[in-house]
Structure formats: C-alpha cells, structure tokens
Amino acid sequence: MNNNLENKVWMKYYSEEAKNIEFPKCTAYDFMMKQNEDRMDKPALHYYGKDITFRELAKRVDETAKAFTAVGVKAGDIVSFLSVQIPETIAAVYALNRLGAAANTIDPRMDVASIERMVKNSGSKILVTIDIAFPKVAKIIDSIKQDLIITQSAATSLPLVKKIAMKLAVKTDIPYGESIIKWSDFLANGKETEFTVAPYVGDATVAITYTGGTSGIPKGVVLTNDSMNAVAINFLYCDVVREENDRFLGIIPIFSAYGMVCGMHMPLCMRVTLVPIPKFVPATIGKLVKTYRPNHVISTPVFIELLMQSKEVKGMDLSFLRTLASGGDTMNEGLEMKLNEFRKEHNMKYPLAQGYGMSELSAAACFCVNRIYKPRSVGIPSLTTEVKIVNPDTGKELTFYERGEVCVTGPSMMKCYFNSPEETANVMRKHDDGRVWIHSGDVGYMDEDGFVFIEGRIKRMITRFDGHKVFPINLEGLINALEGVRNCSVVGVNDMDHSQGQYPLAIVEFAEGMVNTDAECREIFKLCDENVEERGKPVAVIAVDKIPLTPFGKNDYRTLEEQYKKYDYKSWTE
Description:
32% of the residues lie in helices and 22% in strands. By secondary structure, the protein is an alpha/beta fold. 47% of the residues are buried. The mean pLDDT is 90.
C-alpha cells in the first residue's frame, strides 16, 4: 500500500484545530442545541416568512416529547412518519431523540404497497401523517394496525394569511376519533405529562430513512446519534465560508438520509437559519432562490441545471449564494462547464461545492469546498472519514490513480440496514485492518493530494461483448456540455449481433424551443463518432420529452434501461 494513502494525504488541508477536535459524545438534539446555546433568540427556521427561534424550537421539541410520552412512547420505540419537512416534523424527530425513540420516515409519494410494507416492517404502533397523504393511509388502515394515527398540516406554522389560504386550498375528509387525531389535539393531550430524557448512546437509532430504490427495493438506513453528529462536525470543519444567521435552503426531503442529515441536522448545527420547503417542485428552484436569497443550497445536478435555466434568476446578482453544492449524483464534466459560465455571469464568488456520499454514509463522505477544489473531483474525504480504493475482485487496496471500488469508513456510517442482516453484510464488510468499511458500488480513483474522482456505478458499467467496459458518465459529460441539451442519460442496450454484451445508447432531453431534435441527435452522434474512442461510442442518440427522475432528483436510469434494453439501434443508423 502507498504510504501517502496510509498517512491520509488529504489531512494537509485541515487546520490543527480540526485535527484535534473532540468528537461530541451527546445526542443529535443535544449537539444541535449546544451549538446554538448562545443564540437561542436567533431564527432556527424561516418558514414561509415566519421565523421560529431556537428557543421556540426547543419549546416545541419538549411539548412534542411530552405528547409522545403521554401516548406511551418510550426509549427504543419507533414512530412512523408519512410526512414532509415542516416545523412540526422537525420538532418530532428531535423529540423522539430526546426520549431515545426513533422516527421511521417514509416518502408520502410512495405507492400504497410500499408504505404498507415500511410501516409494518418497522413495528411502529403510532403513525404521523401529513393530512394530504391520509387517503393512502385509509386504504391500508386495517392492515398496518396502528394504535394511533396523528395528522399534521403544512399550514400549522404558517403566518395567518397564508394559513387561511392553504386551509381553503387543501380539503381533507378524515374520520377523526379516538384512534385518529389532529396534531394540535395530540400536543394538548400531553401538556401535563412529564418526560424522561434518555441517556446518550452513540449508536442509538435516531431515524430510519430509505434508499432511493435505484438498485432494487428501497432499504431502511439506520441513522444514529454519532452518524448524524459526525456529518455535522465534518461540515463545521470543512472550510465552508459562512456567517451566523446565514440562510440555508432546505429542498431535500427529510425522509431521505441526504435531507435528514445534510438538509436538516447539519445546517441547524452550523448556526444558520434553515428555510424548510415541505414540497419542493424542481421547476420553482429559481423562484425560491430569488424569494429567500439563501446563502447555502445543497442540491443535485438536475436541480442545479434547472436553476441555471430559471427565468427568475436571469441576469440576477447571485453573489449572496456562497455555497452551491451538488450531491446525490455525479455531476458530469459538461454540466460543470456550464455551471462555471453561469457563476461568472451571476457574480458567484465560490466554485461548485461538489460532494460525494450515499445514504449508508449518512449522506456525505467527501466534498470540494472553496479553496479545496479540483474540477471534476468530488473532493477530499471529510474530517472524520477515510476513503480507499480497492480492486473489486481481490479486495486489494490500490494506489493513486488506480481505478477500483470506492470504500469508506468512519463514524458517519449507518448502523445497518433495518431488519436486513444479509443486505447489511453485503455492503458493510470487515477488512484486514479489523475495521468495517462501506462498499459503495462506485468506481473511482484518488490522486496524490487525496482528491477523489467518481467514474460511475459498477452496476452502471456497460460491458460490451468483447469485455470492454464503458462508463456512461464520460459520454454524458460530453453531451451535456452542448448548448441546447438540458439533460442526458446513457444506458446499455442489448447487442443485436452477439449472445451477450451491451452497447451505450444516449438519451437526450433538449431545452425548450428545439424544433428539429432528430437533426440535433444526428449531430451529437457525429460529434461522438469524431471525439470518442471506438469502443465507447454510442450506437444511437435519441431524443425524449423528459428524462424520468427518481423522487430525489436523480436520473432514473433503471427505468430507462428497462425501457430501451431491446432498442433496435440498427434501424436508427440506417
């Protein structure tokens, strides 16, 4: 093994203070409050024009802890949530953390069968649901067997005028009674109840979030006090340029690890104000930036592309936007080039804060931030994290610039997949050094400075009949750099001349106003023919109205693969 790897070459970018920081031995809630104990009257949340201070948030957390205690919730219990990032849900997650209980967070957009499975598998006896999702709950109410169902409304914490408008717009027909109650009644029932604060346990479960399902049925990721606090520590000491009372735009949903940790807990621990957006509509990202003027935005490549195309920010001075971060998916070189031009035009001082992580790592493991930056890289390992590249066949650690599977270890690792020991053992493996490492399934390499470069998913590699492997990200980067291309995804299609193997097919979504997309596709095909090595060329380039996205804003390549795996590329080239 290379000694530079062994010595963690990336640590040269961290201050002596960072290198000697003591890891917090406290619950997620306690760490968040300790970080803000001298600014309790500063806004923790800015919810559609209404500020909620840290003092008010702490009060809401205690009221919610009392209410959960009154209905029998105790340490070790799990409460299911079919809700979104509203102040009530944020308070509830921290309240359960104070009790030593956990939140099982489920995407309300899920199909009914998935919701049913996730609630039943959790063993919860209480379900908290946003009111507009109740029709789904009604279909499975007998099957999930919850002792109590509590309904929330996104209108509860709104300013009065907006609250009235939303209540008029949202009509719900919910049969309230003894086992189905409103959030306000739930809180009122616990007013006279005392609760016991659970002692700190590092690996105690704080939340169960679910993977995006791009590699099969979504799995429950168990997040703990230590894993969530580790990510907060990593960001606190990663050279982010920030000031107290900065605003952080919370557009990543709370029911994902990315949203729970990087979109909620981390910003609150960094002494900034979280602007939670309960229902993020991607097309509105420009409007949100213009309205709230956030100083920090963590997003995905697709959402950043939409921001650049937004009419609302056209010609706007965006110098206030100090951190524009991309995670959740790899940003290809073409989109990064477009973003660099956008930054210059809009007076943005700092480069893209490209990051890398996965749900199993509490979302974040590496990042480029400000002076710690290289084009195309996802950055250096975060403060408490170690990264190594291994040969996926032998498990041998590789040295600089050698491509292999990215493996990660550190306190931000999940505890396990919930109730899935076999799946857990597949991704969390003990190495010869005696430590457990997450096997990411991503192909990449590290340079001599410790910067990590991701080339794609192992499962996304397109293997030709002759064994040559094509990484989609390379083609996607070339095509996405072209003017008029809004999005591109490259998937494998079956080889029509051999019994095995696939070829790359480029699927392109053009910007509005493109008329002759077939001619544009032919031009792109010609460009690839002239600039891509022989075995990596696409067999066809086709246009679609819209590339499907996962609920978390990633290109849904699994759907595209299934749709086009038998595509007749010969008829396209004729």
